[in-house]
Amino acid sequence: MATSRMTVHFPCPVEQVWQTATNLSHTAWRSDLARVEILNKTHFVEYTKSGYATNFTVTACEPLRRWAFIMENGNMSGSWEGIFETAEGGTRIHCTETVNAKHWWMRPFVPGYLKRQQKLYLDDLRRELQK
């Protein structure tokens, strides 16, 4: 199992960061996604640009504070948690993602993949918030 942790600061209010990050109806800012299918209040599916699906189940949703979910696809299972907090001059998010590869040969690549995916997500979020 691999874990990636990142903490980033955004120079905007926590309400704006929360709304952007948790609004599954507006995900065009995500450079890695083609679309998100919302199944119900706690289940959604993300589709990459190549069409690969990952299923998500929300496990915690505390507005302006904490958003967490478990995720699974054919290659991995895991969890993600974002802690949102008001900080001087904006908002700080602490992201923790833990993934278990389903295939033994993928395990050496998972830590690097996680770091790249988290960085891409946070870079995309920063770009969207600067608009």
- Total strands: the figure is 7
Gyration radius, rounded: 14 Å
Known CATH architecture: 2-Layer Sandwich
What's the helix-strand series?
EHEEEEEEH
Question: What's the overall average pLDDT, rounded?
Answer: 97
Commentary on this structure:
With 131 residues, the protein is of the alpha+beta class. It has one domain: Alpha-D-Glucose-1,6-Bisphosphate, Chain A, domain 4 (2-Layer Sandwich), CATH 3.30.530. The chain has two helices and seven strands. It has helices at 14-22, 110-129; strands at 2-10, 33-38, 43-48, 53-62, 66-72, 76-87, 90-101. Strands 1-7-6-5-4-3-2 form a seven-stranded antiparallel sheet, covered by helices on one side. Strand 6 and strand 7 form a beta hairpin. The protein is globular, with a radius of gyration of 14 Å. It starts with a strand and ends with a helix.
Topology:
Blueprint: E1 2-10, H1 14-22, E2 33-38, E3 43-48, E4 53-62, E5 66-72, E6 76-87, E7 90-101, H2 110-129
Antiparallel strand pairs: 1-7, 2-3, 3-4, 4-5, 5-6, 6-7
